[in-house]
Design a protein that fits this description.
The structure holds 2 protein chains of 2 kinds.
Chain A (H helix, E strand, L loop, with lengths): L1 E7 L5 H14 L4 H22 L6 E9 L2 E8 L26 H9 L2 E7 L2 E9 L1 H4 L5
Antiparallel strand pairs in A: 1-2, 2-3, 3-5, 4-5
Helix pairs in contact in A: 1-2, 2-3
Chain B lengths: L3 E8 L2 E10 L4 H7 L7 E5 L3 E4 L1 H16 L3 E5 L3 H9 L8 E2 L2 H8 L1
Parallel strand pairs in B: 2-3, 2-4, 3-5, 5-6
Antiparallel strand pairs in B: 1-2
Classes of the chains: A alpha+beta, B alpha/beta.
């Protein structure tokens, strides 16, 4: 199974992107609570791309959904500036929340809802692979 | 899919702001725009009807907390469930905000 769709890298496209991912996740048996978690992870990635990848000029986000063995794969690709979210520092939980630097939290949430996150730079593209174990194999509760 | 609604009820000197639906990167700015800062000394955020929240939503809540603090007021949160409760927990929001099971408990605590 492979489904791929390209969206403009703008915030108004967010709900369409999340609906696309969630529809497929549901079809593969993810319960609604888990679908919401997956939406959260995808939103954080998409919002980062919309805000930073294209530095104010127009661009696209390509979302490809697939299955591999017991995994549901969400591949998110942009052709913006090099950005490896996995290289970002973890939010400092020792600092009181209202004094913390902005950002960082979104990336942290991506890692807490997906079972695995992989980044690679492929030519001019940032490719982020978000992996969720299919429900029958290893259903996860809380992030 | 991207829908958020708010309603407010004044109870004694507290203002209960109920947010329902989804608080994401698209709707969170609407909440910030629609809701005047420091509208009440005691602000209670009722999230029992909230299905979804992302870091954009958390940021708006943080802004509300800062606004309340700056004006000498307070903010508490109630009605966390499902994904919203999980996100509060993993991001540490449940450790610095007073959290109550429901509006009545929040009102009783702030009375």
């Amino acid at each position: 199974m492979h489904a791929s769709q390209t969206f403009p890298a703008i915030l108004p496209a967010l709900s369409e992107i999340l609906a696309f991912v969630s529809r497929h996740a549901e079809r593969h048996g993810f319960p609604s609570r888990r679908c919401l978690q997956l939406q959260l992870g995808v939103e954080e990635v998409v919002v980062n791309i919309c805000r930073h990848a294209y530095a104010g000029s127009e661009g696209e986000i390509e979302v490809t959904l697939g299955l591999a063995d017991d995994r549901f794969l969400v591949e998110i690709r942009d052709r913006g500036v090099l950005f490896d979210p996995l290289a970002q520092p973890r939010p400092d939980f020792a600092v009181p929340l209202d004094e913390r630097e902005e950002g960082g939290l979104g990336v942290f949430l991506v890692g807490s809802v997906f079972d695995e996150v992989r980044y690679r730079r492929e030519g001019e593209a940032n490719v982020l692979e978000l992996i969720a174990m299919l429900p029958d194999e290893g259903r996860r509760g809380c992030p | 899919m991207t829908i958020m609604q708010t309603s407010t009820i004044r109870r004694d000197d507290s203002l209960v702001l109920s947010v329902t639906g989804r608080l994401d990167a698209v709707t969170a700015p609407e909440l910030e725009r629609d809701f005047p800062a420091a509208a009440a000394r005691r602000l209670i955020l009722d999230l029992s009807g909230l299905e979804y929240i992302s870091s954009a939503g958390l940021r708006i809540i943080l802004a509300l907390v800062k606004g309340q603090k700056a004006s000498g007021g307070s903010l508490s949160v109630c009605g966390l469930s499902g994904l919203v409760g999980e996100v509060f927990a993993v991001s540490g929001f449940d450790s610095f905000l007073p959290i109550y099971p429901d509006v009545e408990a929040a009102l009783a605590a702030s009375a």
